[in-house]
Each structure stands twice: as C-alpha cells, then as structure tokens.
Design brief:
The termini are far apart. The chain contains 13 helices and ten strands. The protein is of the alpha/beta class. Strand 1 (9-15), helix 1 (19-30) and strand 2 (37-43) form a beta-alpha-beta unit. Strands 1, 2, 3, 4, 5, 6, 7, 8, 9 and 10 form a ten-stranded mixed beta sheet that branches.
C-alpha cells in the first residue's frame, strides 16, 4: 500500500530518567516499517540526559522530524504523560510505549492493518519480557490466535468470562483509535497502577477489539524499575497509600456498570485486584517507612456493590459476599481474617 494513503499514528512515550535505555526505545519506533508516524516524547522533567539523547536523534536520524518533544510543567508521572499525548495527538490512532522498552519493526504496520480491516477501537498484540542483564526472553502476555471480538458488550464479556486476566493489563502494546478515547473521555489517573484503572475504565466501552498472537513488544525487565520495586527493604508508605487511592477510584467507577450484564464479574475482578493489594500491604507491612493502620487496610477491601445487589449476582455471589463481609467487619478482625485468607491462598 502507498504509505501516503495510510492513517497517521501517534506514538506516546513519557520519558523520565531512562538514559541507558531510551535511545534503543526511540530507535525502535523511528525504524518502523510504517512511515505515517508522529512520535510524541513527553519530557517528564527528569534529571539525567535522556532528552539530550532524543534531541541528538532528532538531528541525526533521517526520520527525526517525526519527533515532537512536549515538556511537562513538572514531574507528573507516566499517567499524566500519556494524557498529554492523547491531548496533543493528531493521528487517527495512538500507541503507547514505555521509554525503556522497544518494539518490533513491523509492530505498527500489522496493528494498523487489523484496525483498518475491522474498524477496531483497540488492537492488542502479544508481548514478551527481556531481562536487561542476561538477555533472557520469557513470555509476558500471549494470545494464542487472531481473534476479532465485535458487538455491544462482546469484548466486556470476553474480559469478564472469568476472574483470570484474559487480556494484558498494560496500556502499552495496544493500538487505540484516538476518537474512541476522546469520545468516551478516557484518560489515565495520575496514580500508581494507573494501567489497571485505565483498563477497568475502557474495556466496557469497546465495540470491536482485535487480539493478535504476533509478538510486537519487548518489555525490559530490570532492577530498579517501578515493576521491580518489591525487593526493597525500606518502602515509602506513600507508595501503598497511592495504590489504595487509585483503587478508591476503581471502586467508585464500578457504579456506572451496575445495570450491565457483566457487573457481577466486574465487581469480582475489582475485589480480586484490591485484595491482592491488601496482601502486598500485609506482606510488606514492616518494611513501610510509616505505620499502615488496620483502618486503611480495611478501607481497601470496601466492596463497590450493596448487599442487595450482591444477592442478585448470578456469578461469584459467595466470592463477593466474602469481601463484602471483610469490608464491614471491625478493622482489627478484617485485617486478621484477610491475613489468614492471604496465607491460605499463598498471596502472603
């Protein structure tokens, strides 16, 4: 196909203190076989020379003029960086990549082909994990076959077919129709674990999705990254509290789905997600820099549905009743019982 007739794709990449990795990441975008790109680098006010490296690529690479550097007023985190990209993008589609990861040369080409063929709101492909130190490659989240999911609530029922992760939780390696995001006013929360909240917000609005078995994204696994922070012996209390605040938003936003046929499983998935955070908090409670109270932990288990609504659930009724009870018990007993359950299911 004539590249000039293909839709423009905006690439959103928040950048913050990733100097050792950012050149490979940006080059993987610049060297795409797909030519109709604008690359939105969101400078999140880091303290290293990451942006200088990108400016060198702007000057030296044949496609450097595709890059636009957008500077944030202050350090605001990856969620707000992606929101800035959504606001500034002029493409028909937008694709997010973290600035320490890299993508395969055909990534955008094959995803746009599927999006155009099926009129998809989202196209999601397979990713793999690459160890930074050893180069060892392991599966991250895979799809076994090409699957087109079309129709009102069809994608939501796919996501909510059970309590497992049926699609990847990350917003990276997903090609979004930009009009779909803007029409539904879908933005990232400026919170820790913003990807999980964003997924919880957007999947219910999708009318057509494509899942692809093609490996298109390489997630760089490294010590010191946000995802590898659990190994620390001294964890700022603000991190778990920020996670809890994000989950409050997820809980509140459940209510908009209460008349949808998958509301019972949506609530179940939210409670599973929140209980995992509780188990993380209990497992690392002694490592936090300040005291995390029983009241704060019990509040994290608060169920989004009422008792009457839960009794009307067709699926996972007992599962939801358990968490409803945990959320109304006195804090001390709620935490003790949560710890026992966490140990029993080996999450603690």
């Amino acid at each position: 196909m004539d590249n000039q007739n293909l839709p423009l794709v905006s690439i959103g990449m928040p950048v913050y203190n990733v100097a050792p990795y950012v050149e490979k990441s940006v080059l993987s975008v610049l060297n795409q076989t797909y030519k109709q790109l604008e690359i939105l680098i969101v400078d999140d006010c880091g303290t290293d020379n990451s942006i200088d490296i990108i400016r060198d690529l702007v000057a030296s690479h044949a496609r450097g003029n595709c890059i636009k550097i957008l500077r944030q007023p202050q350090n605001m985190g990856p969620g707000e960086g992606r929101n800035r990209a959504i606001k500034e993008a002029t493409g028909e589609f937008i694709y997010f990549i973290d600035s320490d990861d890299f993508i395969e040369p055909e990534t955008i080409s094959i995803m746009v082909e599927q999006a155009e063929s099926h009129g998809a709101d989202v196209v999601i492909a397979t990713m793999r994990s690459v160890d930074y130190e050893t180069g060892m490659i392991t599966p991250a989240f895979t799809y076994s076959k090409l699957e087109v999911i079309s129709g009102h609530d069809a994608f939501a029922h796919k996501v909510c077919s059970n309590l497992h992760w049926n699609i990847g939780i990350t917003s990276c390696n997903t090609l979004f129709n930009l009009n779909f995001l803007r029409k539904n006013k879908l933005l990232f929360a400026a919170r820790k674990d913003e990807d999980a909240l964003f997924l919880s917000d957007y999947y219910s609005e999708v009318e057509c999705a494509v899942l692809m078995p093609d490996i298109t994204y390489n997630y760089l696994s490294r010590r010191g990254s946000i995802m590898g922070a659990q190994a620390r012996n001294n964890i700022p209390i603000s991190e778990i509290r920020e996670r809890f605040r994000t989950d409050v938003l997820m809980t509140e936003r459940c209510r908009r789905l209460k008349c949808r046929s998958f509301y019972d499983v949506h609530c179940s998935r939210v409670m599973k997600h929140k209980f995992r955070a509780v188990c993380v908090a209990l497992r690392h409670r002694r490592k936090f820099t300040d005291y995390l109270s029983d009241m704060e932990i019990r509040q994290e288990i608060r169920h989004p549905a009422t008792f009457k609504e839960i009794m009307m659930f067709k699926r996972y009724r007992c599962f939801n009743l358990l968490f409803y009870i945990l959320g109304i018990l006195p804090p001390f007993f709620s935490v003790k019982l949560s710890f026992f359950i966490g140990k029993f299911i080996r999450w603690i």
